[in-house]
């Protein structure tokens, strides 16, 4: 976590009072929520009232797509389109949407993990309720042509939901994206885990999912996670001042890692997608002939933490659905490892990690799934 975020969360924990209470203690806590909401509104360039705090991007995506479905249950639009490499917080809504009478259809991506606006254009029509497209993929780091897809979707009157969890370090506004709904997460930007936000463009018809209180302008019932929100807001303020610096720090660590890996482990790996267009802190690599899970275990024993598949579902042994959706065969997909570098990673640490990866690779080279 960013020191500023820790500090803000700690200070919030010192306050007692419910932000919905009108007494002085309550009002002091309410002020913290307002400060955090203001930070989000500044970052997204949206109105204060368009920011809804949630427990994280998973809830935000559920709220966006299920909330749209509930609000349009009696309408003619019954299809929801999503890119085939969306996070499970979108793709796993399919059965619930089906129960509500909607069909979630996936739109294919290229071998390089990028959406093709043409493929969206072919599927978009006036029976589509929403288009869900992530701004950048959490596994391979590819940045998606969100604006083009959003324009196409708006052209047929569909709402646009963007999962922008991975791109808070990049420069964009909700209008740049053309989004009606945007999901964000605290722990991807040096804020606390368990807190996030949903941007809801004014005028969007969206039902609340969590009921039982008038918090968040009736959009989400329940007493707010005040320390989490205060920490999230403080992290967003740091981004407003220095997103470029944090982005460059991640890129410097990633590039140092790749340079060193090319020296200490020349040959037996390739980038899964071209690395020039991906998120600054991402490097997804294929190690042909090696089982990624064994490599991860060997790396872990040497002190290096990375993941195969989405980090959010680590522990699963299936090949990554993202890599399969990109057209990789299961054997190749099982050889993929995602390395990510944070704002606090240094080039020296990254070089140290590359040495350990090379050592781990020597230990498991040639091993296959048993
Ligand atoms: N969307 C993307 C692209 C992610 O990387 C993640 C995971 O962190 C999520 C959604 C889920 O976010 P959260 O952990 O805040 O629920």
Fold and architecture overview:
By secondary structure, the protein is an alpha/beta fold. It has two domains: 3-239, Aspartate Aminotransferase, domain 2; 243-369, Aspartate Aminotransferase, domain 1. The chain is built from 14 helices and ten strands. Strands 1-7-6-5-4-2-3 form a seven-stranded mixed β-sheet, sandwiched between helices. The longest helix is centred in the middle third of the chain and has 39 residues, at 226-264. It is globular, with a radius of gyration of 21 Å. The two termini are 38 Å apart. The mean pLDDT is 95. It binds pyridoxal-5'-phosphate. Pyridoxal-5'-phosphate is lined by residues 56-58, 87, 89, 134, 138, 163, 165-166, 185, 188, 196, 312.
CATH topology of the largest domain: Aspartate Aminotransferase, domain 2
Question: Which compounds are bound in this model?
Answer: pyridoxal-5'-phosphate
The number of domains: 2
Order of helices and strands: HHEHEHHEHEHEHEEHHEEHHHEH
Rg over alpha carbons: 21 Å
Q: What order do the strands of the largest sheet run in, or round the barrel if closed?
A: 1-7-6-5-4-2-3
Determine the oligomeric state from the structure: single chain
Second CATH tier, the architecture of the largest domain: 3-Layer(aba) Sandwich
- The dominant shape is globular
Please count the beta strands (DSSP E, at least 2 residues each). Answer: 10
Distance between the termini: 38 Å
Decide which structural class fits the backbone: alpha/beta
| Low-confidence runs | none
> What level of helicity do the residues show?
40-55%
CATH classification class of the largest domain = Alpha Beta
């Amino acid at each position: 976590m960013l020191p500023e975020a820790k500090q803000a969360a700690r200070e919030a924990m010192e306050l007692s009072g419910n932000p919905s209470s009108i007494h002085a203690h309550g009002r002091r806590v309410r002020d913290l929520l307002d400060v955090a909401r203001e930070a989000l509104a500044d970052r997204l360039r949206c109105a204060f009232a368009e920011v809804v705090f949630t427990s994280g991007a998973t809830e935000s995506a559920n709220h966006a797509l299920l909330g749209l479905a509930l609000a349009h249950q009696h309408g003619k639009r019954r299809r929801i389109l999503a890119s085939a490499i969306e996070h499970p917080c979108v793709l796993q809504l399919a059965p619930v949407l089906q129960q509500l009478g909607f069909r979630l259809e996936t739109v294919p991506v290229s071998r390089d993990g990028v959406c093709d606006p043409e493929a969206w254009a072919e599927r978009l029509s006036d029976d589509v309720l929403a288009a869900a497209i992530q701004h950048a993929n959490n596994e391979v780091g590819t940045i998606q042509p969100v604006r083009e897809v959003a324009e196409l979707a708006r052209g047929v009157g569909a709402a646009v939901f963007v999962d922008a969890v991975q791109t808070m370090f990049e420069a964009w506004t909700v209008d740049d994206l053309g989004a009606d709904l945007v999901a964000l997460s605290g722990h991807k930007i040096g804020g606390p885990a368990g807190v996030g936000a949903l941007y809801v463009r004014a005028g969007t018809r969206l039902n609340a999912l969590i009921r039982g209180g008038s918090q968040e302008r009736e959009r989400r019932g329940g007493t707010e996670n005040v320390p989490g929100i205060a920490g999230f807001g403080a992290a967003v303020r740091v981004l407003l001042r220095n997103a470029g610096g944090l982005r460059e720090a991640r890129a410097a660590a990633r590039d140092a890692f790749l340079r060193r890996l090319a020296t200490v482990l020349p040959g037996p790996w390739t980038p899964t997608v071209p690395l020039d267009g991906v998120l600054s802190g991402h490097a997804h690599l294929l190690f042909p002939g090696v089982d990624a899970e064994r490599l991860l275990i060997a790396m872990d024993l040497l002190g290096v933490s990375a993941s195969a598949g989405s980090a959010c579902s680590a522990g699963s042994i299936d090949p990554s659905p993202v890599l399969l959706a990109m057209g990789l065969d299961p054997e190749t997909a099982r050889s993929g490892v995602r390395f990510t570098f944070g704002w606090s990673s240094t080039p020296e640490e990254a070089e140290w990690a590359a040495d350990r990866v090379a050592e781990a690779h020597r230990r498991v080279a040639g091993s296959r799934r048993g």
